[in-house]
Amino acid sequence: MTDFIKVEYPVREKDLLETQLLIASQSKKLRRQRWTASVSATLILFVCILCRHPDDIKWIPAITISILAGGLLFFLIIPYTYRRHYLNQVKTCFAGMIGETVEVKITADSIETVDKTGETKIKLTTVKKVYETGNLFIFQSDSGLYLTIAKQDIDAVKFRDYLISHLQTGITRM
Q: Of 2, 71, 121, 149, which has the fewest CB atoms closer than 10 Å, so is most exposed?
């Protein structure tokens, strides 16, 4: 019996987008930017309300409206903006790869990928983290390289079991 798993799958736009969004969600800088934008919007709106009606300001409604606007910005508008930004980035940066087939071979000591641009070999000891989302397995190496494998193209349970038995790092479910 051979001790490796070999997978072939097409590169899909939605998988690349999900990978980009996961990478962004792990960024402390991006989380800080979202928080700063929301707090700033809340304060700016509060100051505008205060300047517009300085004499007859109703403090509770003004504070409530400001906080709701900041929350709306934080939870709805900013994520939509990031999603649109990363979708455009995927369409421009990965346009030549979408639809192409990638072959991945995971052995006891390495991950080897072959696609139209060439071959890549990553030692399993350099795999920093493996994320498992609802649709993907995403490998992150020490060098910052990410590898995405869609679950729909593989036997996910068998693949997960193989990874657990061969990786030194665990699998982070997202």
A: 2
Q: What is the pLDDT of residues 59-105, one digit of tens each?
A: 777 777 777 777 777 777 778 888 999 999 999 998 888 989 999 89
Task: Give the integer Cα–Cα distance in Å for 155 and 152.
Answer: 8
How is domain 5-12+99-173 classified at the CATH fold level? PH-domain like (2.30.29)
Nearest-angstrom CA–CA distance, 50 and 55: 9
DSSP H or E run through 124 = none
Q: If you ran DSSP here, which 8-state letter would residue 115 be given?
A: E
| Predicted model pTM | 0.74
Task: Answer yes or no: are the C-beta atoms of 131 and 89 closer than 8 Å.
Answer: no
Q: Where are the domains of the chain?
A: 5-12+99-173, 16-93
